[in-house]
């Protein structure tokens, strides 16, 4: 059995930590509260990148880069909307904070 927190709790903790540090985060789409996949959008200005939580063969989570290589905001927007259309359980969270990947790693990937 996995010790992974339900997705809604992971998202709430991430948003709280980002807010407490002076950043902003918002849920662009909410999925299944317990087991939904998690896609994080991060960026500055017109460039964005996306990472997704993946479960490895060793039953540990990791964050994997995904989405279009262009990094253009509209391309990333199209990417997550297409993913969401195929997977209604997908959570999409956008973060605007310096060191966003660090917050994700410390909150989502910590054991």
Structure, described:
Helix 1 (7-20) crosses helix 3. The two termini are 15 Å apart. The chain is of the alpha+beta class. The mean pLDDT is 91. A five-stranded mixed β-sheet has the order 1-5-2-3-4, sandwiched between helices. It is globular. The chain has one domain: hypothetical protein tt1805 (3-Layer(aba) Sandwich). Helices cover 33% and strands 31% of the residues.
Label this structure with key terms.
33% helix; globular; alpha+beta; 5-stranded mixed β-sheet; hypothetical protein tt1805; 111 residues; 31% strand
Helices and strands in order, then pairings?
Blueprint lengths: L6 H14 L3 E6 L8 E7 L2 E9 L5 E6 L6 H14 L4 E6 L3 H9 L3
Parallel strand pairs: 2-5
Antiparallel strand pairs: 1-5, 2-3, 3-4
Helix pairs in contact: 1-3
Organism: Sphingomonas ginsenosidimutans
Protein name: DUF1491 domain-containing protein
InterPro entries: DUF1491 (IPR009964)
CATH homologous superfamily classification: Protein of unknown function (DUF1491)
Task: Report the sheet with the most strands, covering strand number, pairing sense and barrel closure.
Answer: 5 strands, mixed
List low-confidence stretches. Answer: none
Q: Structural class, judged by helices and strands?
A: alpha+beta
Annotated CATH topology: hypothetical protein tt1805
Short description:
The protein is an alpha+beta fold and 111 residues long. It has helices spanning 7-20, 73-86, 100-108; strands at 24-29, 38-44, 47-55, 61-66, 91-96. Pfam families: DUF1491 (PF07372).
